[in-house]
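2024-03-11 09:14:02 DEBUG pipeline.ingest accepted 1 chain
2024-03-11 09:14:02 DEBUG pipeline.ingest length=238
2024-03-11 09:14:03 DEBUG pipeline.predict start
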Amino acid sequence: MHKLAQSVLGYIRKHDLLRPGDRVGVAVSGGADSVALLRLMIELRGELGLVLFVVHLNHKLREPQSDADEQFVGNLSARHGLEFLSESRDVKTYAAEKKLSLETAAREVRYAFFKDCLQDKSLERIATAHTLDDQAETVLMKLARGAGTRGLAGIYPKISIQHSAVSSQLKQQSIIRPLLETKRRDLESYLVEIHQDWRGGRRLRKRPRFPERTRSTGRLRSNGSFHKSGPRPRSVAS
């Protein structure tokens, strides 16, 4: 097991985020943080006894890049044999109707989608890729806004969500953040180490393949390739 996966496993157990048999939707935008979360959860699913799904919301804010993000995440899901739960929602229209900023509207639409996935797909958990960097940024933002000591709480490891199940019994579900003690740079290093590309930011070299010599001409033929990442998906910490 990778040392980063061991660290995340310790955090999950410390905060009792997951239990054997949980059906977990991993929220993946296509950016480095969420792709790393998915790969880590795939590595840990046997140890934790999980059933994984991939959930993706297309905000339609960066077309055509938003559609390319969705396709990338769908292909990644298929590559690992995971069910892909995706939906498109018009965040700009929602923001205009509710008189909200795009950032606030995107967060509200995204969490409404997560709740729909929990209820409609019978998931117990949605895992999001908030990191230690997001935690620090949230606290600093609250300080800048003049929040008192009581208002300085950062991002919580778990948000419980309850709704009435068909059986008339309360079914407790939650949104969890397994990466809150993990730095973003460590996630990117992990992706480079396991040769996993992502959408955005930088070019990531694929697993090296050595040139091979053809029999007929004796010339070198290179099989190396690079993945050209598109614009990095804009993430909103919450």
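2024-03-11 09:14:41 DEBUG pipeline.report The radius of gyration is 20 Å.
2024-03-11 09:14:41 DEBUG pipeline.predict end
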